[in-house]
Design a protein that fits this description.
There is one protein chain. The chain is α+β, with helices and mostly antiparallel strands and about 650 residues long. It is about 15% helix and about 35% strand. The protein is built from 10 helices and 38 strands. The strands form 9 sheets. Strands 30-31-34-33-35-36-37-38 form an 8-stranded mixed beta sheet, with helices on both faces. Strand 2 and strand 3 form a beta hairpin. It is globular. It starts with a strand and ends in a 16-residue tail after the last helix.
């Protein structure tokens, strides 16, 4: 290997190109076990963002289950998840185009099960005894707010749909006991989000398939329940944050018992259906994933003694845990390995990568290794982040030059940054940028109290933490304080715009479908999040003045640096007018501004050409703003007022 060349930060030539990132990249999600076969869903940017079910058999064969023309994605809650279930080789799934349930027998073609209409379905439990599905239905047939219920759908005649549970605003996770005699589920009501407070209910299943009298097991307006699941012997387990941390519990029929109390999170925010952090190897043995201070771990839990024993795996991010006997499947990723579907044998402790999100042949010398950082923030508190120094084996910067910093504000805002290999971050670090991925107050993985720091203070706590993280690194001489940028999508886009508007720290920013008008968000967004802001800011319209005070759109005069906006034109969560109003205001003010709209995209970009355009476009934008020359030719974009 030749000696590294002295090249300014930002001008380093990198093998991690946008073409590499989108060409072979797939999103891997929702794993399911069926006999000896393992199923998962792939999101494929190269196919226009289509979701397809893939099957891996015991003899090592891997093939698509979903034929072309079908897209396995539900729009319940808009964010979806839990879009398929499988039993004895027969797959049931939601199709994106018409939102109908389809039944696909082994080796056969998908056939529509439910009739055409304005219904959406998700989170399937298969009731084999009664030959039906039990699932969440979201009814959009009225002009009023959509109606959510739990329903049964005949597996033979999808027109036979019966409402089992109704009356609450939201439902999730219907699960049948092993003998088919009891159903459990979660429900919650406005203004709560599921990580604020949910209730766990059970009811006997009557001979005619209806439900008997329901009984509340746990939960309330200030207790979040996650993933109720029956053990093989019919005991109901679940995750609750009643202690301040999402820990495992079980219900004995007359009381709730903790299994392993610790300052760690065995649950995650329930943004999508079908999430899973644990499963049963036996009635007395749970395989579980949990996170401590941003790092995920895998372990077995003895339900009799409460003893937790680590399973050594090379992954720092673990999700979609599925277990059957000694067979374990999950989605795992690490700082140096792409996210992948993993099969693991609990007896032999041998793992197998079934499908990587991208097939990489990269020299580790191009990969930045993440470092956990803690830094002081407002009110004497500590915030957290993941720092990526610029790294490229072929390049070093001139002496005394400090790197530009890109601060990433994650979406949600009730979510968390991950330490898993993210080529979207390595794209920047391999070109000479430092990156700080901030787990600001309100993020998950640090307990309920940390999560609630954002209550009533969205647009303040998150903004302060992002700004203080950047200043912390600059003050220590790790980054160039005159080349600080911030970028985020959705809620992270709001944090980005608020930081650029209300704090004089950053010199440039990029908003991906970010919120600029909180009032418009409160009035226009979809049902699932329509009262989210009640806790993050305050009830609307009672606290209208707070919404105005924290909306960047009303204070464009305070922005003094260039901003670029990326927006899907079919976004129902954050409509395009949020970006367009902001762009027009900055254009009128004479500030450098760029607007990149994408036809056909919704909340988040799924098409390869648009993912590429956004990534290269943001880098091009900073090159013009910070005055460095990219090593490769990039498609230019129009920057007004520059």
């Amino acid at each position: 290997m030749s000696e590294p060349q002295v090249i300014p930060y930002g001008s380093w030539k990198s093998p991690i190109t946008s073409d590499l990132i989108v060409a072979g990249t797939v999103g891997v999600g929702q794993i399911a076990l069926d006999g000896n076969d393992i199923y998962w869903v792939e999101m494929r940017p190269s196919e226009g963002g289509r979701y397809a079910i893939v099957k891996h058999t015991s003899d090592g064969d891997r093939r698509d289950v979903t034929p072309e023309g079908f897209n396995v994605r539900t729009r319940v809650h808009e964010y979806g998840g839990g879009a398929f279930a499988v039993s004895e080789g027969t797959v049931y799934f939601s199709n994106f185009t018409d939102q109908r349930i389809y039944r696909q027998p082994p080796g056969g073609e998908p056939q529509p099960l439910t009739p055409e209409g304005k219904m959406r379905y998700a989170d399937y439990a298969i009731d084999a005894q009664r030959n039906r599905l039990i699932c969440v239905r979201e009814d959009h047939s009225s002009a009023a707010e959509p109606l959510n219920t739990l329903v049964s759908v005949s597996a033979e005649n999808g027109a036979d749909v019966r409402v089992l549970v109704a009356g609450e605003d939201f439902y999730s996770t219907p699960r049948l006991s092993p003998d088919g005699g009891t159903l459990c589920w979660l429900s919650w009501n406005h203004p709560n989000m599921p990580w604020d407070g949910t209730e766990l209910w059970v009811a006997q299943v009557n001979a005619d398939g209806s439900l008997g009298t329901s009984e509340k097991v746990a939960g309330g307006v200030d207790e979040s329940i996650f993933q109720p699941q029956w053990s093989p012997d019919g005991t109901l387990y679940f995750v609750s944050d009643r202690s301040g941390w999402w820990n495992l519990y079980r219900w004995t029929g007359d009381r709730v018992e903790p299994l392993c109390e610790m300052a760690a999170e065995f649950g995650v925010p329930h943004w999508v259906f079908g999430m899973s952090t644990y499963g049963f190897a036996a009635s007395d043995r749970i395989v579980c994933a949990y996170t401590e201070r941003g790092n995920w771990h895998l372990a077995t839990l003895d339900t009799t003694t409460g003893s937790l024993q680590a399973i050594e795996v090379p992954y720092t991010s673990i999700s979609s845990v599925q277990v059957a006997g000694d067979r374990l499947a999950f989605i795992g990723g690490s700082a140096t390995a792409p996210t992948a579907a993993i099969a693991f044998n609990l007896t032999t402790s041998q793992g197998q990568v079934l499908r990587q999100s991208i097939d990489l042949d990269l020299d580790p010398g191009y990969l930045s290794v993440p470092q956990s950082v803690e830094f002081p923030t407002e009110n004497g508190l500590t915030a957290y982040g993941i720092f990526y120094p610029p790294t490229n084996r072929d390049c070093i910067a001139p002496e005394n030059e400090l790197p530009p910093l890109l601060v990433k504000s994650h979406g949600g805002p009730t979510a968390a940054a991950s330490r898993s290999l993210n080529l979207g971050i390595q794209y920047w670090t391999s070109r000479g940028f430092a990156v700080l991925d901030v787990n600001y107050g309100g993020s998950t993985g640090y307990g309920r109290e940390y999560r609630q720091r954002l209550n009533d203070r969205w647009g303040i706590v998150d903004v302060d933490d992002c700004a203080n993280g950047a200043k912390y690194l600059a003050e220590r001489g790790m980054v160039d304080g005159n080349r600080l940028a911030i970028a985020g999508g959705s809620a992270g886009g709001y944090t980005t715009l608020a930081a650029l508007t209300f704090r004089a720290v950053f010199k440039a920013g990029a908003s991906y479908y970010g919120v600029s008008d909180l009032e418009a968000l409160a009035k226009e967004t979809h049902k699932f999040e329509s009262r989210y802001l009640d806790r993050l800011i305050g009830p609307y319209p009672e606290q209208k003045e707070l919404y105005v005070q924290r909306s960047p759109i009303h204070f464009c005069d305070r922005i003094s640096c260039p901003v670029i906006f990326f927006q899907g034109l079919e976004d129902q969560v954050v409509p395009p007018n949020q970006a367009e109003l902001m762009v027009n205001s900055l254009r009128t003010k004479g500030l450098p501004v760029a607007y990149v709209p994408f036809a056909g995209e919704q909340h988040g970009f799924r098409r390869a050409e648009n993912i590429k355009r956004a990534l290269d476009g943001e880098f091009y934008f900073y090159s013009r703003v910070f005055g460095f020359e990219p090593a490769e030719a990039l498609e230019p974009l129009d920057i007004e007022n520059l």
